[in-house]
Design brief:
Length: 261
């Protein structure tokens, strides 16, 4: 069948048709079209004077718990308002057309799950799993969430229901190690895959950014989807320049995996 979708290389379609184990590795760019600010530009208003890397740390939480908690509550409000976009849906649909597909995400929102992806590994935790900063007991959120479209505000973190220490966001901060279970399962999936998509990530944060390199080393085909260049450009077999919500549905259509109407 002639490839009517101009910029999906036939070699990529062939690799996709032959793939048995696929890994879809995603970053904040896959949620951008759902209105969730990518990590690098999640700093407006109150936080505009902070650098994301400085704010997403245990030190920042210790020094200004209300600024950090307020930032995460603002981001959680965004995530709760957001809807999965066509990229999330195409990734969920793709799993129906290949023998095995694992989603490994750096994102802390739950849009992959809400789009129907069954196997999702969160390397950097989740906005929806707060825990005690001292005894690590999981905490429930109070029903309401702050609705701060911008500017945000300081919010004192709640006290742990068990030991009264401050509750912290359930995410992995810079300088913290990734959850061993998540990292091991992502590593195993990448070792075994024959095709890895790297979608919407600047490929700058480690150890997550090692995963596409690992896939290349294991002989997998690596496909990158990003409107901008990243350090992965030089190594990926295919670089599809564009927005995930635009490219992913076209990729499935070109492969004859058209989204179920
Ligand atoms: C660890 C959760 C040690 C929190 C995050 C020097 C060299 C190398 C490494 C280091 C170093 N110094 C320090 C380190 C280690 C550090 C690190 O890698 N730093 C980097 C910045 C150099 N890593 C760590 O600290 C990690 N832990 O190493 O522990 C250790 C070891 C052993 C024992 C104990 C300790 C922990 C890293 C996890 C940090 N937490 N997130 C939160 O979310 O607040 S990472 C954070 O950045 C985000 O969560 C995100 O996951 C990650 C990467 O960002 P991206 O997802 O790529 O998003 P970004 O905004 O950067 O880019 C968006 C992309 O989308 C762009 O490319 C854009 O073009 C594209 N895009 C935009 N629109 C679209 C699109 N793509 C497609 N479609 C669109 N429409
Ligand atoms: Zn506690």
């Amino acid at each position: 069948m002639k490839n009517t979708h101009h910029d999906i290389p036939p070699a990529l379609l062939q690799a996709l048709h032959q793939a048995r184990r696929v890994v879809v590795f995603t970053g904040a760019g896959v949620s951008a079209e759902s209105g969730i600010a990518t990590f690098r530009d999640a700093l407006t208003g109150l936080w505009s004077r902070f650098d994301a890397q400085a704010l997403a740390t245990p030190e920042a939480f210790r020094e200004h718990p209300d600024v950090v908690w307020g930032w995460y509550e603002w981001r959680r409000a965004q995530a709760l308002r957001a809807k999965p976009n066509a990229a999330h849906r195409a990734i969920a649909e793709l799993a129906r057309h290949v023998p095995e597909l694992a989603v490994v995400t750096q994102n802390v929102d739950d849009l992959h799950e809400r789009a129907g992806s069954a196997r999702v590994t969160h390397l950097h935790g989740s906005l929806h799993a707060p825990r005690c900063s001292a005894c690590a007991a999981p905490q429930a959120f109070a029903a309401e969430h702050p609705d701060e479209p911008d500017g945000g505000r300081r919010i004192a973190p709640p006290a742990c229901a068990r030991c009264r220490a401050p509750v912290r966001p359930g995410v992995v901060w810079f300088g913290e190690s990734l959850p061993a279970e998540a990292w091991n399962s992502a590593w195993r999936a990448v070792q075994a895959c024959d095709l890895l998509f790297s979608i919407g990530t600047s490929a700058l944060v480690y150890p997550a950014a090692e995963l596409p390199q690992r896939a290349l080393a294991s002989g997998a085909t690596v496909v990158q989807i990003n409107p901008a260049a990243t350090p992965l450009d030089a190594h990926a077999h295919h670089n599809l320049r564009g927005a995930a919500a635009d490219v992913m549905p076209r990729l499935l259509a070109a492969a004859g995996f058209g989204l179920a109407v």
